[in-house]
Amino acid sequence: MDGGFSAEPTLKTRFQIAVDRLFAVEGGLVDNPADPGGVTKYGISLRFLVAEGRLPANRALCDVDANGLIDGRDVRALTRPQAAALYRRCFWEAEGIGQLPPPLDAMMLDQCVNMGSGTAIRLLQSAVGAKTDGQLGPKTEAAVERSIATVGMDGVIAAYKRVARDHYAAIIAAHPRLACFAEGWDARVDRLGAV
């Protein structure tokens, strides 16, 4: 997407806005035994750190305590700036979230952190009528632009919220033990797209 969003100072500002919104939702350390991601801090779970740490380019970011292992101690040692660096590298840049117009960029960063980038992008693709392959490429970007032109940004956000709620409901139906997260997920969806 062109839309004038490629200038670096603008990207930095937009990224910081998105991260500030995310930190308002993703608090400190959480070690809920029901969470399949394991111990989590600032939305960065142990499962995520281990997976990203397998990539050589991300190894140093994920081995927070620099002891050669990626484990719960790394999650506990994570600082807000380190979490923001992971958000930037693993979602904003690697997935192309920063190419989306605001407030979709902040909304998608939130959802990538909460449900994984592939799922979050597939839901966006479903909301805008694009092929649901989990990749944010030119065809999805064009579908987003068409949808914004057709139903407006509010319509795109509303469509995303619908598919996100359906997704969370399906998770709970398949895994009833995760119902303890339903209220938080619902509140999170309510906040999506807020300016």
Q: What does this protein look like?
A:
With 195 residues, the chain is mainly alpha-helical. It has a single domain (8-191), classed as Chitosanase, subunit A, domain 1 (Up-down Bundle). Helices cover 62% and strands 3% of the residues. It has nine helices and three strands. It has helices at 8-25, 46-53, 59-62, 72-77, 80-93, 104-115, 117-128, 138-174, 182-191, and strands at residues 29-30, 40-41, 44-45. A three-stranded antiparallel sheet has the order 1-2-3. The radius of gyration is 17 Å and the shape is globular. It starts with 7 loop residues before the first helix and ends with a helix.
Any descriptors?
195 residues; mainly alpha; Chitosanase, subunit A, domain 1; 3-stranded antiparallel β-sheet; 62% helix; globular
Write the layout of secondary structure elements.
Layout: H1 8-25, E1 29-30, E2 40-41, E3 44-45, H2 46-53, H3 59-62, H4 72-77, H5 80-93, H6 104-115, H7 117-128, H8 138-174, H9 182-191
Helix pairs in contact: 1-6, 6-7, 7-8, 8-9
The CATH fourth-level homologous superfamily:
Chitosanase, subunit A, domain 1
Note the gap between the termini: 20 Å
- Report the portion of residues in β strands: under 5%
How are helices and strands ordered from N to C?
A: HEEEHHHHHHHH
In terms of per-residue confidence, which ranges show pLDDT below 50 for 5 or more consecutive residues?
1-9
Which architecture does the CATH hierarchy give at level 2?
Up-down Bundle
Principal-axis shape equals globular
Overall radius of gyration? 17 Å
Question: Roughly what is the average pLDDT, rounded to an integer?
Answer: 91
Reported for the largest beta sheet, the result is: 3 strands, antiparallel
The total tally of domains equals: 1
Q: Please, how many helices?
A: 9
Broad CATH class: Mainly Alpha
Structural class: mainly alpha
Briefly note the CATH topology name: Chitosanase, subunit A, domain 1
Structure summary, number of beta strands: 3
Q: Helical amount among residues, as a percent range?
A: 55-70%
What order do the strands of the largest sheet run in, or round the barrel if closed? 1-2-3
